[in-house]
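Write out the bound-state structure for pyridoxal-5'-phosphate.
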Amino acid sequence: MSLSDELFGRGKKVMPGGVNSPVRAFGSVERNPLFIEKASGSKIYDADGNEYIDFVNSWGPLILGHCNQDIVESVKHTIINGFSFGLSTEREVLIAELICEIVPNVEMIRMVNSGTEAVMSALRLARGFTGRDKVIKFEGCYHGHCDSMLVKAGSGALTSGEPDSAGIIKATAKYTLIAEYNNLESVEKLFKENKDEIACVIVEPVAANMGVIPPKEGFLEGLRKLCDENKALLIFDEVITGFRIALGGAQEYFGVSADIVTFGKIIGGGMPVGAYGGKREIMERISPVGNVYQAGTLSGNPIAMAAGYKQLTMLRDNKDILSTINMNAEYIANEMRCIIEKYNVSAQVNQVGSLISVFFAEEEVDSYKTAVKSDKKVFSRFFNSMLDNGIYIAPSQFEAMFISFAHEGGDFKKFIEVFEKSISELR
Ligand SMILES: *Cc1c(COP(=O)(O)O)cnc(C)c1O
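---
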């Protein structure tokens, strides 16, 4: 028995499913999960010493790869002066100034400890600001695990086949209205049926939790217009896209403005951080200035801020980082398409910036409905073959691959070789 298997066996006795987050259990790819010992650059090493090229990067935060030396140094330097004070520090001002400088329409920001917390707080703020109760979300989009967002959710909820969680008060779910991603009419209809009741529309500007699905031309612009016409706020959940598809995120990439933006993942450089920001007029409704209450014992934690600030500074100061990883992603996505064509396998490759998904589906994937037609059994065979050959991608059909700045030529060469082998074996 491998050490990973043994740890999983012990873990299962004391942790539900042996894990602290569902997708780590590898249930949908029918094998025991990995237990990781350490990582460096583009590689992770499991408890048994196996090496994998990591195309997940902790689900996105590590855009510079594992153990970036500058970030490690910054954390080390900070940690010796205290773990947490429950009082403000210069670093919190610095990271807030930096984010307001690089993200359009963000004049103020509040740090929290996860993407879930950022979304939960942003929704409260939108409701407090507008005095309205209802929110529109999209089928297959994932916004963390707060009650109102676990309705038709993506990511692990979708992977497990249960996009609606048990334990959500029916009255709560009633205030979450579900529209179809890339379908403006479905949004317009909800606005008509719930006139003057909608506080906000929340969207992943690039859907990345039902696999990667780019917004169709005009979709985000249309949401902006509908929100303006109905005096509702538009929330871009940029927990994945922020600081990734462009330095200023999806607002910069697509040229569409949001009222509130939520962040997570990259913003913490691998530490547990989330944030939400927007125009002063909206953000000053938050306590202690306004009456929308939101607080956090460890929010703005000095070590987390040190890691996040260093990573964001590096992305700002070296514009080549994002352009390089975007180019590399485009290159391997094209290689993947050629291989799929060569072996005549039913599969689609979607790519936006450094995010890629391969769907084992016959038709183009541009919506939740087309995404869920993908063949999960085929994905499972594909995943297992990739992993057995040293390539770690997300253990689910409905997640993204994340390219980092630590991935180099040799990593891509090996990825493409193993991809070809794995695809050829599917026939
Ligand atoms: C990961 C994710 C979240 C939740 O973030 P956590 O830090 O896991 O709570 C929210 N929204 C999106 C778009 C995400 O990808």
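---
The two ends are 31 Å apart (CA to CA).
The mean pLDDT is 97.
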